[in-house]
Amino acid sequence: MYGRQVPQIISTVNVNGVRAATGKTGKGMLEWLAVTEADVICIQETRATDEQTRTALAPALDAGWHLARAEPGLKGRAGVGILSRREPRAIRIGFGSAEFDGAARYVEAEFDDVTVASVYVHTGEADTPMQDEKYRFLHELGAHLKAQTRDFVICGDWNVAHTELDIKNWKGNLKNAGFLPGERAWVDDILAAGYVDVVRTLHPGVAGPYSWWSYRGRAYDNDAGWRIDYQLARGDIAGRAKQAVVERAATYALRWSDHAPVTVQYR
């Protein structure tokens, strides 16, 4: 595993605060990092400074993980990173946006034969300036994705459920952010541009597998979730995806985030 030049197992997870996720002794993120077989892990919503993140992840970094990250410009907001067993040959924060490059919502790491990116798209709110901002972000991000020419995998919390299969209560969310026609059309456009939703390709025609569940009510126990954490791939690597799993905790009590890691194995 440690000698690979090309990542073969990639995970993505919104940690919902890296200090909280690593602070759950015996059942937290650090325990998961100690046993995961992933070569690269994309994380979102660290909600911490660079120093705080490195302190929270210190046991994993001491064990050999490398960390590339974008530090939040606003305290307690956003923050993305990429953990990798092999040090990337290049790291880029942002995608050339005057409006969004300081928002800590995008970072990419270049390895020998593939670039892996971690993205956090904020929730938005229908018919508000927050939703307008979300559409501007998606528009600029889309242009960046379409400009890629090498093997590329972008992972993250998109806060968009693409189809009715990707959200349990789709009828009740037709007018809500995360399932709006414009958001879903954006995903259509990216897929038409050559990207592959590898999890959906490997799990065709089934509900989910969901990756986020509200902490409220019994959403987790009833698997009333949303599939909003994606790995979109282009190039040769897209056709090498052979297995995808959502690493859903066995019980509500064992969760260390309201999202579960989405892990894809590539040939």
UniProtKB/TrEMBL annotation:
<feature type="binding site">
    <location>
        <position position="159"/>
    </location>
    <ligand>
        <name>Mg(2+)</name>
    </ligand>
</feature>
<feature type="domain" description="Endonuclease/exonuclease/phosphatase">
    <location>
        <begin position="12"/>
        <end position="259"/>
    </location>
</feature>
<dbReference type="InterPro" id="IPR036691">
    <property type="entry name" value="Endo/exonu/phosph_ase_sf"/>
</dbReference>
<keyword id="KW-0464">Manganese</keyword>
<feature type="binding site">
    <location>
        <position position="259"/>
    </location>
    <ligand>
        <name>Mg(2+)</name>
    </ligand>
</feature>
<dbReference type="InterPro" id="IPR004808">
    <property type="entry name" value="AP_endonuc_1"/>
</dbReference>
<keyword id="KW-0479">Metal-binding</keyword>
<dbReference type="GO" id="GO:0008311">
    <property type="term" value="F:double-stranded DNA 3'-5' DNA exonuclease activity"/>
</dbReference>
<feature type="binding site">
    <location>
        <position position="258"/>
    </location>
    <ligand>
        <name>Mg(2+)</name>
    </ligand>
</feature>
<feature type="active site" description="Proton acceptor">
    <location>
        <position position="259"/>
    </location>
</feature>
<dbReference type="GO" id="GO:0006281">
    <property type="term" value="P:DNA repair"/>
</dbReference>
<feature type="active site" description="Proton donor/acceptor">
    <location>
        <position position="157"/>
    </location>
</feature>
<dbReference type="GO" id="GO:0046872">
    <property type="term" value="F:metal ion binding"/>
</dbReference>
<feature type="binding site">
    <location>
        <position position="157"/>
    </location>
    <ligand>
        <name>Mg(2+)</name>
    </ligand>
</feature>
<feature type="site" description="Important for catalytic activity">
    <location>
        <position position="229"/>
    </location>
</feature>
<keyword id="KW-0378">Hydrolase</keyword>
<protein>
    <submittedName>
        <fullName>Exodeoxyribonuclease III</fullName>
        <ecNumber>3.1.11.2</ecNumber>
    </submittedName>
</protein>
<dbReference type="InterPro" id="IPR037493">
    <property type="entry name" value="ExoIII-like"/>
</dbReference>
<feature type="active site">
    <location>
        <position position="120"/>
    </location>
</feature>
<comment type="similarity">
    <text>Belongs to the DNA repair enzymes AP/ExoA family.</text>
</comment>
<feature type="site" description="Interaction with DNA substrate">
    <location>
        <position position="259"/>
    </location>
</feature>
<dbReference type="InterPro" id="IPR005135">
    <property type="entry name" value="Endo/exonuclease/phosphatase"/>
</dbReference>
<dbReference type="Pfam" id="PF03372">
    <property type="entry name" value="Exo_endo_phos"/>
</dbReference>
<keyword id="KW-0460">Magnesium</keyword>
<feature type="binding site">
    <location>
        <position position="14"/>
    </location>
    <ligand>
        <name>Mg(2+)</name>
    </ligand>
</feature>
<feature type="site" description="Transition state stabilizer">
    <location>
        <position position="159"/>
    </location>
</feature>
<feature type="binding site">
    <location>
        <position position="45"/>
    </location>
    <ligand>
        <name>Mg(2+)</name>
    </ligand>
</feature>
